[in-house]
Amino acid sequence: ATPTAVMVATGVGATHGVLIKGGDALERAQSVQYVIFDKTGTLTQGKAAVTTAKVFAEMELGDFLTLVASAEASSEHPLARAIVDYAYHYHFFGKLPAAEHAADQSKEILSQWLLEAVDFSAVPGRGVQCLINGKRTLVGNRSLLAENGVIVPTEAENFLVDLEVNAKTGILVAYDGTFIGVLGIADPLKREAAVVVEGLKKIGVCPVMVTGDNWRTAQAVAKEVGIEDVRAEVMPVGKADVIRSIQKDGSMVAMVGDGINDSPALAAADIGMAIGAGTDIAIEAADYVLVKNNLEDVITAIDLSKKTFARIR
Ligand code: ADP
Ligand code: MG
Question: What is the ipTM of this complex?
Answer without folding.
Answer: 0.96
